[in-house]
Amino acid sequence: xxxxxxTIKSASDRSILIQFGSKISAETHQMVACYTEILxxxxxxxxKTISPAYCTILIRLNNDIMINEMVSELKSLLKDPIKLNKxxxxxxxxxxxxxxxxxxxxxxxxxxxxxxxxxxxxxxxSGEYLVYFIGFSPxxxxxGGMDHTxxxxxxxxPRKIVPAGSVAIGGSQTGIYPLQSPGGWNIIGxxxxxLFHTENIxxxxxxxxxxxxxxxxxxxxxxxxxxxxx
Length: 230
Prior knowledge:
Layout: E1 7-12, E2 15-19, H1 26-43, E3 47-52, E4 56-61, H2 67-78, E5 91-97, H3 106-113, H4 117-125, E6 129-134, E7 141-144, E8 159-162, E9 166-170, E10 173-176, E11 181-183, E12 186-190, E13 211-217, H5 219-229
Parallel strand pairs: 5-13
Antiparallel strand pairs: 1-2, 2-4, 3-4, 6-7, 6-13, 7-10, 8-11, 9-10, 9-12
């Protein structure tokens, strides 16, 4: 069991922010994930949307719910210790083609880190990755655990179009663009896997709490796998 002492406060006239300190860690992630599940189970009828992040949960309330009463209710709920879920997280294996055609920013990452192309691939595929939350765009996983020496600043000017499946580095994080969208992260590869199903959001490939394992594939393997999905 774990005692927590989060900060709970109104973030607007319709939203509440629960803050579990400021340190990004697997333990804090477990608390965020566990309380998100509890809130959805116990207070689903009060909640319009819920957005877990690294150290916070943002709750947007339905219009008929009194925010002060909800804050008091949550403070009462969170004062008691909870048993964290210790189940083994599911590992999702992600094939990535790191070849130049799919990695327009690899040269920038090489220049910034001082690593060769092969060294970047080796370090990127060796990370102990955990999906902390899903956000930014539908299905976009925020993945912690990248080798810190791969840290590379985001693009000064974001691209208007980033292809779906692009694998990228933004600062000290890595991520996968599930849909074609604008974006400012450094693209170092692409996967043929479909991460996000717009017709069934509950059937998305990657979920909060999953572990991620990247592994390299050739361009021929990428194209062959892509064609098999069409």
